[in-house]
Give the backbone structure.
Amino acid sequence: MPRASSSTWKIEVDDTSSGHKQTVTGFGAAVTDATVSVFSALSDSQKSALLDDLFTTTSNDGVAFSLLRHTIGPSDLSGELYSYNNNTDSSLAKFDLTPAGTSMVSWISKFKSANPAIKLLGSLWSPPGWMKANGVMTGKTADNNLNPTYVDEFAQYFVKYIKAFDSGGASVDAITIQNEPLNSNAGYPTMYISADQSASLIQENIGPALKSADLSTEIWAYDHNTDQPSYPQTVLDGAGSYVDTVAWHCYATNVDWSILTQFHQKNPKVTQYMTECWTSPTNSWYNTIDFIMGPMQNWAAGVMAWTMATDTNEGPHLPGGCSTCRGLVTVDTSAGTYSKTLDYYFMGQFSRYVPRGAINLNTTGGADYGGGSKFEATSFLNSDGSRIVVLQNNFANSVDVTVKFNSGETWTGPVYQQSLTTWQLPPPGTSTESSSAAESGATKKSGVATT
């Protein structure tokens, strides 16, 4: 680790047009049944404060989330199994959001009222059991897949769901047709869908069904780990008339976010997102930083954490579901109060200071020595010409950092040990003060936020 004990570090940012990369959509988290149930236990005053903290900059700690993912029906973070159409019904005449789905619509509509710019992704864990070959929503079996008899009903299930959410004020901007399509688990709702089948379902059934219903909801491919990039490529190749976006998760062994850069090089017009990575008290303290920083350095337009909120026991969850997935917010359902975890603030270092429409800039000079020993940075250009630099220092000592922009400016300042720091810098040439982003003294009218 030749530079780990050094007191200085240099980062270079290309803020000229040649350094422009992807445009940012936003940051946020997953809304699960657990999220909805624990939020519903809050007092009225706490609910109001929560909406400010999550979706606006009204409160001092507000993180202004603008990108959300919700579960279409149950997931492992649910208190029970259910679907929006429990009984065999080829006409889907008995479609019903159920109390759980209705509560989710109600909460998401509140979120969208707090921040109308929210982009909402819906992801399905399993269709109703009667649509599947095994007849149930769970099952780690060879027949845990869609019954081909019901491909049209499967497509109409999405149409019904989108319309029901829309009518409740929770408009759905995008869907993935199956969460983790290569994960077949007996403990909670899952379904196996091959890449070829996914492409066929989107191209032949789901895409035409949405179009026929005059729905503009986007369809995103994959929604699974980075170790199988051939899967979303197959979907794009087979259903490109309906799909131009890919969703990735973080659970591959030795996750390598450079896969997204490789995928971009092959598919430069395709938008990419990191749609799921868990926050947990069992993770390293910097885990959340890594799953934001890594994708943003590699062409992701946005990042979402799993999950937004749980109770003090990391639930509710199904018996086979995740028992250590802690929300960004922890709710004490007995007291009707909530608290924010460290991960909430890490997400906020990006979501509050990097607005939608910001352009990611080519940023070099970071280093990862393995075992969590690293110094990393990513930078953004805002529409008003101001710039954001987010700096991750995992070392046990503070580091004096110099950030050099290709436009000609150089900024310096400390980044404290084991911290995530966000520098807000004005447009080039708008100030004549010293080029220091240090927290004390001067500033060149910069803002500094550290977690």
User: Anything to note?
Assistant: The first strand starts at residue 8 and ends at 14.
